[in-house]
Design brief:
Blueprint lengths: L6 H8 L3 H17 L4 H10 L3 H10 L6 H11 L2 H9 L8 H10 L2 H11 L8 H24 L14 H17 L5 H21 L2 H23 L2
Helix pairs in contact: 1-9, 2-4, 2-9, 2-10, 3-9, 4-5, 6-8, 7-9, 8-10, 11-12
């Protein structure tokens, strides 16, 4: 990464994450094919719904005859963490028009959010529409095309885990976390390491006692509060 904030750099910065979208996107397409969805239906769902966990839920709930309300609530809860991400990045785009901000909000993903947070360390806390939009478009295209490919190849590949593609997402986030640690000069590395440990423990506990759809949001909020307390007391 560097401090350039144009569309070409946005594409370049996002390309290393594409393998993660391909692995999970193909898995979604295969599951959609298994549940009776056509390639066109799979493509339209990725284009219009565009939420990984929500789409996995929908391709199971629709064939089962679930009500529209239950599907709406399930997808909304699974995607609620995006509100936190959008609110975190929103101040960086306050000079942009509402339509542009809504477009960026629709396309934000876990991966592009993590990339944006890492990019801030190189740009002195600045982001712009061109870079963010290019990053989002690359992710959008990769996810959509991977889902379509998975559906088309559903008869040939029944288990993407056998290919090891599911680990691509984990490896990608580990790489982004490493970049965050070595480039963020605003916080001491000791504090960051402590918070990584705290977040891991809270996530483990949350997965045991909380619904899966609420774990991310609750752990994020609690971790932020704990981090603020630790920083105030021990890292003034």
């Amino acid at each position: 990464m560097n401090d350039v904030l144009d569309a070409r750099t946005g594409v370049k910065d996002t390309l290393p994450t594409v393998l993660g979208y391909i692995g999970i996107g193909m898995a979604f397409g295969i599951i959609a094919h298994t549940n009776g969805f056509s390639p066109l239906e799979t493509l339209l769902m990725s284009l219009m719904v565009y939420t990984g966990s929500g789409q996995f839920a929908l391709v199971s709930m629709l064939p089962a005859g679930s009500s529209l309300l239950s599907m709406f609530m399930a997808v909304s809860l699974m995607s609620a963490r995006m509100l936190l991400m959008c609110m975190t990045l929103a101040p960086k785009f306050k000079k942009e028009k509402l339509a542009k901000n809504l477009w960026l909000g629709f396309l934000i993903t876990d991966e592009t959010f993590a990339l944006a947070i890492t990019k801030l360390n190189y740009t002195k806390g600045k982001l712009n529409y061109d870079w963010m939009n290019a990053s989002n478009i690359v992710a959008y295209a990769a996810w959509t095309l991977a889902g379509l490919a998975g559906c088309l190849l559903g008869n040939l590949v029944s288990n993407t885990k056998a290919l090891g593609l599911d680990y691509a997402v984990i490896a990608m986030f580990l790489g982004l976390l490493y970049l965050q640690l070595i480039t963020d000069q605003s916080l001491k590395i000791e504090l960051q390491l402590i918070m990584i440990g705290v977040t891991m423990v809270l996530t483990y506990i949350g997965m045991i006692i909380l619904p899966a759809s609420a774990t991310t949001i609750v752990v994020t909020v609690v971790s932020c509060l704990v981090g603020m307390g630790i920083k105030h007391v021990y890292f003034k």
